[in-house]
Design goal:
four-stranded antiparallel beta sheet; HIT family, subunit A; nucleotidyltransferase; ADP-glucose_phosphorylase; alpha+beta; 14 strands; 6 helices; carbohydrate metabolism; 25% helix; 2 domains; 333 residues; ten-stranded antiparallel beta sheet
């Protein structure tokens, strides 16, 4: 059973994922060899994965866990957290722990093995983003879960272990400290100025345009004022919305348009780098917040975190966001 352990000094929770245990020698990072054999995410290999929990595109007359799908969601075969069991919160002296209860799912974005997310059409990418929403709406019915993080690791340097395009979600029994800090910072701004800080950022970036990469009717894409790494890029709705799962499909279609263009621009500018993206949203079952604003953060894997960053919490970024945005604006999306 995985373990959730709380750091008593800063309140940070750590997952001790015993199901994923490896020897220290296995932690050495080397470039992966080309994958051979059967891919569990390819059509026809559905029996190689756990049974699907969501599917889009398969005809209603077709049996489940069979080919014919466009997007497919399955439990992770090697989950960081397990869905079965009770939290069993305990104290061990001054330390706090609980069982590693949660959900860990894989969103297979396309049946085509050789297509990346940035290769998908806006309609295809919309179905992926709608699958994100559908899984949040389902998993929030489990009262053990407090937060769902949706994320993508693309490329070996970003932590991907399989080539086939996929995203992941992890449902957690606690709200991550980083999310709490973001929510509390937004709340302090709202208490002082009675405005959402994210809405203020959207307004300023659209006005100044120095860090703006692109915009459509509903979303803006920009390099944040204080990026942690080169070419960090945020995608944010123009209208205020704190909960990703509250977005209607027509607005998710415009988010898909913005996300696809962003990934293609980063690929064109940087030679198809590895990258991560994360969806930041309000905690599960929390009411709509006037101070928080959901968004997507895209992080190309161009630098490594070293001793100074680990020790200080500071990030060193050699590329000013204004230069990154100007470069991305010139790349076809």
């Amino acid at each position: 059973m995985p373990d959730l352990r709380r750091d008593p000094i800063v309140g940070r929770w750590v997952i001790i994922a015993t199901e994923r245990a490896r020897r220290p020698s296995d932690m050495q990072r080397t470039a992966p060899a080309p994958q051979g054999g059967l891919c569990p995410f390819d059509p026809g290999n559905e029996g190689m994965t756990p049974r699907e929990v969501y599917v889009a595109g398969r005809p209603p007359s077709a049996p489940p866990n069979a080919p014919g799908w466009k997007v497919r969601v399955v439990p992770n075969r090697f989950p960081a957290l397990k869905i079965e069991g009770e939290l069993d919160r305990q104290a061990e002296g001054i330390y706090d722990r609980m069982n590693g209860i949660g959900a860990h799912e894989v969103i297979v974005e396309t049946p085509d093995h050789d297509r990346a997310m940035e290769d998908l059409t806006p309609a295809e990418l919309t179905e992926v983003l709608f699958a994100f929403k559908a899984r949040i709406l389902d998993l929030r019915n489990d009262l053990r879960f407090k937060y769902i993080l949706l994320f993508k690791n693309h490329g070996h340097l970003a932590g991907a272990s399989l080539e086939h395009a996929h995203s992941q979600l992890i449902a957690l029994p606690v709200v991550p400290r980083q999310v709490i800090e973001e929510i509390e910072g937004a709340r302090r701004h709202f208490d002082l100025k009675e405005r959402c800080i994210f809405c203020d950022i959207v307004g300023q970036e659209r006005k100044e345009r120095a860090r703006l990469v692109l915009e459509n009717d509903e979303f803006v894409v920009f390099a944040p004022w204080a990026p942690r790494s080169p070419f960090e890029t945020w995608i944010m709705p123009k209208r205020h919305q704190s909960n990703y799962e509250a977005e209607p499909k027509e607005r998710l279609a415009l988010c898909a348009e913005a996300l696809g263009s962003t990934l293609r621009r980063l690929g064109g500018a940087l030679g198809k780098p590895a990258y991560n993206f994360m969806v930041h949203s309000n905690p599960l079952r929390d009411a709509q917040s006037p101070s928080y604003h959901w968004h997507i953060e895209v992080m190309p894997a161009l630098t490594q975190v070293a001793g100074f960053e680990w020790g200080s919490g500071f990030h060193i970024n050699p590329v000013p966001p204004e230069e990154a945005a100007e470069f991305l604006r010139k790349v076809p999306g």
